[in-house]
Structure formats: C-alpha cells, structure tokens
Design goal:
Low-confidence stretches: 322-328
Strand order of the largest sheet: 3-2-1-4-5-6-10
Order of helices and strands: EHEEEHEHEEHEEHEEHEHHHHH
CATH class: Alpha Beta
Number of helices: 11
CATH superfamily: NAD(P)-binding Rossmann-like Domain
Number of domains: 1
Mean pLDDT: 94
Structural class: alpha/beta
Largest sheet: 7 strands, parallel
Number of strands: 12
Radius of gyration: 19 Å
CATH architecture: 3-Layer(aba) Sandwich
Shape: globular
C-alpha cells in the first residue's frame, strides 16, 4: 500500500483529496493544526498528526512515497511577508525534509493565477506566462516563488505542480472559494462584476491530484480547470439551482477601479482590506483556461459546474452552523 502525506487536510481541497486517496487504497498521514478540525470519518488507513510546517517534520516522513502539499494562505488582505511565510517558506522547509527523507514525489498545489489566462477566443494553458493583474497579486507572487524554487532545486525527489482554478463543492467548511455562492444565494438583488472565471468541481480537482500522484510527469504543471463562465452566468446557475429569481445588476468597471484605488490607499495606512487595484481588475476580466492537458494525461473526466454548485449548496444546508457564519 502506497503511503502519502497530505498537508492542508482540513480545508476544502485537502479534505476531498484525502477522501479520494483513501477510496483508492492509499495510506494517508495528514498534517493538521488541530485533529478536531478533520471533517471526514475515522479510517484505519488515515493518521492525523498535529504539526507545524515551519518546523522539523522529517520524523513524519518515514517510508512516505509522496507528499501532497495543499496547505496555503489564500486570504486576500495580507502583506507579502505573510503570504511568503506560508506559501514559500513552509514549502521550502517541507521540500528540504522530503529530499532528506528520500520521498519519491512532491506534488505542489499552486494556483491557475501563476499561468497566463485567455478569453473566449483563446484559453490559457500550462505554457502561458503569468500576466497582469495576477503578476501584481501578492498571493500569486508567493505561489510563483514556490513553483520556481521547487523546479530549480529538485534533485532526488520528483516535482509535480497542479494549478487549480476556482473550486466549488462539498466540505467547504470555512467557507473558502464557496463564498462566491453566497454572493447570489438568498439575495433579492445580485450585484455582479462584468468579468468571468474558470470553475472546477473540487472532486475533479481531487481526482486530478490523485491521478497526478500516479501518472504525473516530473517537472510538469497541470491545470485543473473546467467551465469558463462569466460571473453573471455563474450566478444565474446558482439562482436556478436554488429556485430563486433575484434582480441582476452589473457593477460598472469604473466603480470597481475606484474601489481598488481606495483599497490601495487603505493598505498604505496598514489597514487590512480585500480591496486593491489588482483584485478589482481581476473581477473585470475573463480569465479563462483550458483543461486539455490534465484531461489527456491525467484522465480526468470533468463534471458540470451545475453539479458542483448542487453539492456545495447541499453541504451548506446540511451544515447550518457554517451557513450561519457566512451569512452573518
């Protein structure tokens, strides 16, 4: 039985990855901050270990075949040094110990925003270099730095990078990317930006990671992506699935740009805010991607985003405590 170590085990993607690994017969060691945060059931092939990714974790990597590094800082209101600590320094520490302990593979979960996006005529792929506004995203910069380090410093350990787009689905307990559903759910008025994104069912992203553990090629990147939708199209899906008919109102790009400038000013005053010029610009563009490589090489059969929304909404309904937190 192959033994895999997973970080970020209590988040949306980490939980789904562990469930898929267990279903596929792997033995899993999950590094967590608190064991009580695990959302899944107990399993004889799952061991939860409380650990700090910035400390010496080599003792947990004995006989590990692969590390799947999911843990990341994704909040949009931080300084670069805060992103760097989690998204770069922890990666360097974990990978250093992986090399020392002769771990065969290191699979790094990055972001699609380190790759150049496309539009309705041309979709971004794994070979496209990052472009504005994501070149100015502090989060994306920290992920790019980690990618570069891993690709330049791998010696005995194979490096595989996956770049998921916006993931939707069950076990989004915080919630994280599923917050976008609440922009439209149970609202009489829905204000939407004029841009668009690529969306993927988190189960498909998890399947892609499990398949990459087995079939991914060292030194390669794989976009885990599916449907390219405008925000309006996505929210209309949410409305239909939740049986709503709110008034849809487009947010002018000039207003988003103004909010970005206000956010820039607040940040210079050391005030934390999600607003910034790059973040607001990202809402105005259609950053679309292709999943051709991951479908061909990893054999992923992508599900519809309708199914992803249905699964996410069902999870939120069945977990009213989390639902209440989000709505407050």
């Amino acid at each position: 039985m192959k033994k895999v170590c997973v970080t970020g085990a209590t988040g949306l993607l980490g939980t789904n990855v562990i469930l898929k690994l267990l279903q596929n017969g792997y033995s899993v060691i999950a590094l967590v901050r608190k064991k009580s945060s695990w959302l899944g059931e107990e399993n004889e092939n799952l061991k939860l270990v409380e650990a700090d990714l910035l400390c010496d974790i080599s003792g947990h990597l004995t006989d590990i075949d692969c590390i799947v590094h999911v843990a990341a800082e994704t909040r949009q209101n931080l300084r670069y040094d805060e992103y760097r600590k989690v998204n770069y320094e922890a990666v360097v520490n974990l990978f250093t110990h992986a090399e020392l302990m002769s771990v065969k593979k290191f699979l790094f979960v990055s972001t699609a925003n380190t790759l150049g996006f496309g539009n309705t005529a041309f979709r971004g792929n794994e070979k496209a270099p990052p472009i504005y506004p994501f070149t100015h995203s502090l989060y994306a910069q920290s992920k790019q730095a980690a990618e570069d380090y891993l690709l330049k410093n791998s010696k005995n350990t194979e490096v595989i990078i996956v770049n998921p787009t916006l993931m939707i689905g069950a076990y989004d307990s915080k919630p994280s990317s599923g917050k976008i559903i609440f922009w439209a759910w149970k609202k009489k008025l829905v204000f939407y930006p004029k841009g668009g994104k690529n969306f993927v069912h988190v189960e498909d992203a998890a399947n892609g990671i499990v398949n990459a553990v087995e079939y991914g090629r060292t030194g390669e990147k794989y976009l885990l992506a599916n449907e390219n939708l405008t925000y309006r199209e996505f929210f209309k899906k949410v409305n239909r699935i939740t049986s709503q008919n709110p008034v849809m109102i487009a947010i002018p790009n000039t207003l988003l740009s103004l909010l970005g400038l206000i956010g820039d000013g607040l940040r210079t005053l050391k005030i934390k805010t999600n607003l910034s010029t790059p973040n607001m610009k990202a809402l105005q563009i259609c950053n679309y991607y292709s999943n051709q490589k991951s479908a061909d090489e990893l054999g992923i059969q992508y599900q519809s985003i309708d199914r992803a929304i249905e699964d996410a909404v069902r999870y939120f309904i069945e977990n009213p405590v989390n639902n209440k937190k989000t709505s407050s």
